[in-house]
Hints:
The complex is a heterodimer.
Chain A: H1 3-13, H2 15-52, E1 56-61, H3 70-77, E2 82-98, E3 121-127, H4 134-137, E4 141-146, E5 156-160, H5 161-167, E6 174-179, E7 186-197, E8 217-219, H6 221-229, E9 239-244, H7 250-258, E10 268-273, H8 275-315, H9 318-326, H10 331-383, H11 392-396, H12 407-433, H13 437-444
Parallel strand pairs in A: 3-8, 5-7
Antiparallel strand pairs in A: 1-9, 1-10, 2-3, 2-6, 2-9, 4-7, 5-8, 6-7
Helix pairs in contact in A: 1-10, 2-8, 2-10, 2-12, 8-10, 8-12, 9-13, 10-12
Chain B: E1 2-13, E2 17-28, E3 31-36, H1 43-50, E4 58-63, E5 66-67, H2 68-71, H3 73-79, E6 81-84, H4 96-101, H5 108-114, H6 119-122, H7 131-144, E7 149-153, H8 161-176, E8 181-185, H9 189-194, E9 197-202, E10 205-213, E11 216-219, H10 228-233
Parallel strand pairs in B: 3-8, 3-9, 6-7, 7-8
Antiparallel strand pairs in B: 1-2, 1-4, 4-5, 9-10, 10-11
Helix pairs in contact in B: 7-8
Amino acid sequence: MNLCKRACLYSIRKKGKTLTLLAFLLVMATLMLTCLSIQSATETANANIKKALLGYFTINAKTLENGIPEDTVSQILDVDGLSGRYTLRSYTYATYFDADGDLLEINTEGAAQVPEGYENAGKIVANSNSQNDSYFTDGGFEMVEGSPITTETGNQVLIHEKFAQRNGLSVGDTMLLGNVEDKDKTIPVTVAGIFTNTEEQDSIGMAPSYDLYDNIVFTDLSTASFLLYGTEGTTNVQYGDFYVNDPDELERIMTDVQELDGVDWESCTLTRYDNDYQNAKASLEGLQNIVFIAIAVVSVICFLVLALFLTLRLRGRIHETGVYLAMGISKGSVLLQYLLEVILVAAIALVISFGTSTAISHQIGSSLLSQVTSETYETVDLTGESETAEEPTEDLGLAEIEVAVSAEDYALVWAFGMVLCVASTALAAYPIMKMKPKSILSQMS
Amino acid sequence: MSIMEIKQVGYSYDNKKKVLKGVNAEMEQGKLYAILGPSGCGKTTLLSLIGGLDSPGSGQIYFDGQDIAKTGLSDHRKNHVAFIFQAYNLIDYLTPAENVSLTSKLPPLPILERLGLTKEEAKRNVLKLSGGQQQRVAIARALASEAPVILADEPTGNLDEDTAQDITEILKESAHKMNKCVVVVTHSNELAKQADVVFRLKKGELQVLERVQDGAAQPQSRRNNTPRSERRAK
């Protein structure tokens, strides 16, 4: 009778022992697979957060004299690691005139004060794309009529619908923007669109007249550059936001930017913005660390418990071992039989564990992950850099994360399980196998 | 011609207590040998050494003229000897037929039936058989192995008188009809009476007794502790 048949007969006929081993190995495989699934899910969550909470840096002109020149922006855009998404911004104030040069009326109701010289002036917001401006993305501004302003459009403005009504302006009309300090320096612009605000202004009653929502005018960067720096034919900006592909590389990219030639760093500052990502990452890393420790602990405990279990089991089979050896069956053959019995049961346990761990990891993993991701959203909210949406999980790409058993994890558990079985059986059988047949037989009696 | 030859075999436990002191013996096929002696005198140890379960401290054991230490103890156990133990030592998760098949590729039923087991009993769990039936299975397993030497350690020790007599008959038949060399370690004078040659192990030395009569065996005039090779030389 060969060892395979002996192993099969033992496994079938010693049902209690086989089922006990099966239960133990099933729990072990399920635990291991669940931990690995959660770890994979946290890695996916981390990747999604990287995509959603893009890190970026801002270059800021310290003085109002020159701003940041176009060629500096071009140099920065060539730095390796940038995603290609960027926003250039400028802010200034301008006095508003109609096409004939007559002053336009602004809203002063609710203003904390109307500063001298600003009786007909308002805030000018220039952006490489007005749709990407925080007033529109987070401040509740929305277009009512016309089209947004981009780098393609020149000498155009977006005005508030109340400002338009107050002054009888509509899309296509011309108005003049004049330098507050130097009223002779004006630039004609066309009304490209009209916007409104869906949320009330928070700071109303404290804000000066030019900062009231009604009095804000959005324009292109070139127009703002003319008003700020008096430039013509070239565009200098106050701020530039540059997004990176991998927030973890932000430090390196900023170092590369600081090493660019020809940039006057005396008049510019670089500021890092990746708090949201770092906070979210810290939350996920906490879970990843716990899962990593859990995997290590489960592995060690599984090995020790399995070795102990098999030691006790084989100790109960000294009699059988002695009989086999007395019959001339080699120690290797006996050891292989014992190993095969464990591997047979382990294979069944691993097959079943796919189902059990899928169910368990889906429940426990989703619960753990949602706990961590809700912490992540709270973190993001608290920093004030991003606002929580109604269903924030969709924004960060975490809602669609499935805690499931992957083929890689399953293969890893199979490999680990088999190594564990071999190591545990060898460890458990070693004391018996090193004994002489007579010693084993004398223990039998 | 002897199949087993024991030559100047010595053995001590933990290099202290010497239980075998230069034991010499020869055993032939077709004979039943009994080894008598008080408890702890080293009978089972001698049987273990003959069966290749352990190595002697000194001396040699030959099977068919070959030193078993050189040909390999595992090979000796596998091909030359078969054991029968007092506690039967059957594999408890196998049926009698499967136990017999452990050592043989021959069909197990004929030999089990010859030893008095029915087909039904041959397929039952071994633990559900009586002690006598279990010992028959153990003997069947030994005989099925086709090993020329059968080593039995107190084979009737756990059995009642009638069953012990049956087992003794089977062992005797195995020697005489199947041409086996059967070596039995026993306390039973009844079994020893049936043996062709009776040894007594005393104080580490092996003596050949003339015959066994009513529990009192008389030593032969000449001790059989001189190896055959030495006798030939003389």
